[in-house]
Amino acid sequence: MNTTNLPVAVIGAGPIGLITALGLVSHGVPVVVFEAGAALSSETRAGTVLTRTLEVLDRYGALGPVLEASLRLDEIGQLDRATGASAGSVLTSALAGETRFPFVVNVPQHELEPVLAAVLRDRAPDALRMRHRLVDFTQHPDGVTLRLSTPEGMTEFAAAHVLGCDGGRSTVRERLGVPVSGHTLGQRYALVDLVCDLDVEHPRDYPYLAYFGDREEWVVLVRQPHCWRFVFPLPPGRAAPTPGELRDKARRFIGDAVEPEVLGSNVYTVHHRVASSWRRGRVFLLGDAAHLITPMWALGLNTGVLDASNLPWRLAWVRRGWASEELLEGYEDEQKPVAVHGSAAMAEAARAVMDRRLEPVAGWSDAMTRTLLGVRLGSGPPRTRTGAPQVGDRVPDLRVFGPRGPVHLHELCRDSFVALHLTDARRRPHLPADGPAGLRQVVVSRWDAPHDSGLRSRAYFDPGSTVRDRLGDVAVLLRPDAHIAHVEPWTADSWRHVRDRYLREVRLAG
Length: 510
Hints:
CATH superfamily of the domain at 8-68 and 105-179 and 272-352: FAD/NAD(P)-binding domain
CATH architecture of the domain at 8-68 and 105-179 and 272-352: 3-Layer(bba) Sandwich
Oligomer: single chain
Number of helices: 12
Largest sheet: 8 strands, mixed
Distance between the termini: 17 Å
Strand content: 25-35%
């Protein structure tokens, strides 16, 4: 067991590094983030944060400031560029029964990063260290020694673990000697941010996030808080356009009467590449360091956030002595298939829709896929709208009522495994008041627990059996990341089965 008091070192202060650090802080794990640059990135890059990422930010205590900096939207438009006709918008309101955040937000990455950094500085004042470039590291049985280049010269730093969040050209991955496999698309993407009035003087009724499909040249239009973003494909071999050429291309789309100002532009290559290994000893890869996914449908940044959701709680459980080191093996086992199969398949579908080789669809399942990433860990298809919950599913964030008021399922398991026993509280089901560290067992019932039942502190009121109707007469074990670890038909012995399953889950039994 790793009982060291050394901090975890995060390499890279991009969105994934900062969100990972916030996750560690939320679980009480000391962390230091090393960033090579003197300032956070100012490049014109990712711009849409999906619903699942909003849930992760909420769990890590960073959602409020991000929402303040963002533009919220409840429609992802899919249109035919030639005619301007709608091909069926994805309405995020379809997920009102799934999440507290049935919307996505637009915020440029260069505006998102300072918000995340400010939250981190507020909660861990000395955690972010700029102008610290990783040169090399050496692993030991009880930690990792980092060598860093700073303005004052070379320095060493002792860490318990190292998390490489340093992008597609990862120094951490290179020093580990981990190869990547995949391919690079011949087609590049060109992006330009323009200040122009498409609201009053030249009104356009485009959704705030609109994908205009076309066989010749598709366009993505994104309404950012302070500007409009246009994304175009760049054919193979074509020279990178200048900012002025990108502005003129956008004017052909929005009308010559509009006089836009160029805020920034970028031309970038699109990859599908995955590292062969995401962990070597005490060193892990996350985000673009582990997988490069097309940014279409906002898959790049948001797929990386899934990594930042999975690993921090595992490190916390091991450091607390609540789990064996084997728990850390589950990170790559679960997240690699999500990147290789889940996001990669979505990326292929995104390009096919934009090239008009595939007709878009809209509805509940499409909203789940596009905003909650349809995430189910393990093998098999994601849960259907009416299907029974399965191991690996993200549990719907349904509302129940505790002794003092409303609480949602995701809030119940923020820093704990929680077993929900969906049964009648009047019948006094046996639930242990204590048990293995890191596990709570509670009853969820439309019958409020009587004050003399002995269950008052472990009971949640479910008016109208909303949760029970969705999940069934079951016992459900939830992980800190809101994924289901175990589910079984409820019996009087379920508390024991859940306890045993928890111990196996954290690798302390079996």
